[in-house]
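Thread title: Can someone regenerate the structure for this chain?

I was given the following input by a collaborator and told the matching structure tokens would be attached. They weren't. Posting the sequence so someone can regenerate them.
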Amino acid sequence: MVNVTVTTAGGTSAVAVGNQFTYIGIPTVTGLSPTVGPVAGGTSVTISGTNLGGTTSVKFATVAATSFTLTSATSMTATAPPGSAGVVNVAVTTLAPPLHAGI
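Best answer:
Regenerated them for you:
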């Protein structure tokens, strides 16, 4: 968290709670478990990584997970939706840009 101040010829604004800005780290996915599931969906997938706090969506290819639950800033579970046979990317989107991981 950093304080945002404005400086003009008249001086610099005061530091206060209302002018604090927080930088959010880009999420990283370091593991998926399990890495396979049926085309019918329903598999509970544990996603490990960093900066997962503030997750707004989880997608398997272009289809949103049936549900997801954040357990910590480094771990979450998502329920795989129905899909087609083959490898797909899993995308975790947080307040920062999305990060994709192949499964």
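The first strand starts at residue 2 and ends at 3.
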